[in-house]
What does this fold into?
Amino acid sequence: MKRFQKLPMVILLACVACSRSHSQAPPPTEPVELQLQVSTPFHFVAYGDSRFHDPKDTEAANPPVRQALVQAIAQTNPAFISFGGDIVYNGYDKNDWKVWDSETAVWRPNKIPVYPALGNHDLHGDEKVALANYFERFPDLKNSRYYSVRAANTLMLVLDSSLDETSGPQGQWLTQKLDHLAGDVDFVFIVLHHPPYTSSSDAKLFGGGHSARSHEQELAKTLEARQQNLRARIVVFSGHVHNYERHEHGGVTYFVTGGAGAHAYPIERAKDDPFQSKEVNYHYLMVEVDRGSLKITMHRLDLTSGTAVWTQPDSVAISAPAAKAAAQGK
It folds into this structure.
């Protein structure tokens, strides 16, 4: 007891403060659940891998393509934009985020919401600094690295693929959201940066590419098992691969939409891929949602001639199983 009393007062106070701070630390915040007031029919845009960065530096991305896509999306006036990550080239760099601010200013007069997923480039450098820059642009997320958005008859679950998607807190959250899906949800959109399926490869046969990772492959198994007993249809949007792909497995449709401006590259597509193309496919996806049905169209941009040439080389219609059964009188 005497030795305790002889401790310097500053140390005693520091110890008390540390103990109080630890005991009163706030619990982790729950992932935010956003609500977007919109009615069917409505449309939104999905795309990713833009790498906003100094437009004078053309090594990181293709600035004219990136800017043309932003302008074109503004003209469609979507209900919202789903951004699949790698928004900026370096998440720690405030200047990259300032380029984002300036080049996407055209979206703000119409107050178009942007719902992003974190990409690996968004986390570059000091992660705390990178996340501070990220959440400064998206305050509605309230520091949630993964979250949900309810919009009419859809539920969008945005995941952070730098974390395990099927275990830990994020995996438990995803399970809970799918376990308690509202009966009026026709479509569940899963958005993340790394793709569960891709015909691309780390071998980089054409100068670029990424193989699907084990965590996302496990996520695909989970989603496809869920789909077998789910009334709503699951649709997955990912990026990371700088091109466009569409895959269909176990009733789930998977899109790779990484053509927002980061240098695109051809990929060696599997023979059974629904979409076959040798192009680089800078693009965005237009998602048109109605009751029990949706249509997803790839809008491809070609600037090689110096003039913007737009085409729609792929489009797919997807129906909610319950709506399909009702139409067949079952």
